[in-house]
Amino acid sequence: MNEPLFLKAVLQEKIWGGTKLKDVFGYDLPSDKVGECWAISAHPNGPSTILNGPYQGMTLAEVWEKHRDVFGNAKGDVFPLLTKILDANDDLSVQVHPDDAYGLAHEGELGKTECWYVIDADEGAEIIYGHHAQTKEELETMIREGKWNDLLRRIKVKKGDFFFVPSGTIHAIGAGIMILETQQSSDTTYRVYDYDRKGDDGKPRELHIQQSVDVTTVPHVDAASDIKTEKLENVEITSYIKTDFFDVYQWKITGKAAFEATAPYTLVSVLEGEGTLSVEAGDYPLHKGTHFILPNEIKNWSIDGTLQIIASTP
């Protein structure tokens, strides 16, 4: 497979969603309450479809299952990563995700470690990141007594910020924030608090207090940050994070930039601009909102144009 795999995203309606995925990226939305674009996904709750080449019309999950050579014969039952764009028109629920051991034992799927690149944020917008409890007992007491202002850590954010959110971290994206999220391929979320909102059925949305207490890291520890930027010919590469689950980079391209593969395959999302991707098999137009995978056979490529890209590798 010497062509990139371009992907058709899956759009997910959410109680807290809005219209920015159309306004900013031009996606055709089913309603004005779309919260998530599952851009590169093999998860059964929203698998992306291949748009080009010999696997056109297949889902990413099917290609992973039947053509593992595309991914360098990588191990694992499931495609490990999921790239999303989230439009938080309203506050998301306060939540926490399990690690792999708890997720597999209790939910039958991987846990969820994730990271966020802030595409845009309204003035004064905030996230919830971590908590102030010192013991599990204190955490559970504060949750059950609803002492949210004492418990939750709030952080103001701006465009271009980056946050690593390991499993066990209490977190929430606040209203007015748009992010690109790189995460493990998991849809297990434990809600700690949801502002007493009601779902489409008119009933309060389900909370998962016991599971949340079980999996939350206590006391909270801020993830270490080791962001590095290097300037090469016509590209500035920022390395945001290297973990057991994913490495995440930003490529700021101005002109023609050459790249070499550093992993069996690479996930790519264009956040700004337009240009051309060139591989041995040919040239492919890129524009804001394009998502694709560079398979194992493509060891070298170039991108020409003015673009801002977030890339990740397993």
TrEMBL record:
InterPro entries named in the record: Carb_Metab_Reg_Kinase/Isom, Man6P_Isoase-1, Man6P_isomerase_Firm_short, MPI_cupin_dom, PMI_typeI_cat, RmlC-like_jellyroll, RmlC_Cupin_sf
EC top class, as a word: isomerase
Cofactor(s) required for function per UniProt: Zn(2+)
The entry's keywords: Isomerase, Metal-binding, Zinc
Domain Mannose-6-phosphate isomerase cupin: 237-313
GO MF terms held by the record: mannose-6-phosphate isomerase activity
Keyword Zinc: yes
Domain Phosphomannose isomerase type I catalytic: 6-106
EC number: 5.3.1.8
Top-rank lineage group of the source organism: Bacteria
Reaction(s) the record says it catalyses: D-mannose 6-phosphate = D-fructose 6-phosphate
PANTHER family referenced in this protein's UniProt entry, alphabetically: FRUCTOKINASE, TRANSCRIPTIONAL REPRESSOR MPRA
Membership in a protein family: Belongs to the mannose-6-phosphate isomerase type 1 family.
Protein name, per record: Mannose-6-phosphate isomerase
Organism, scientific name: Carnobacterium antarcticum
Primary gene name: manA
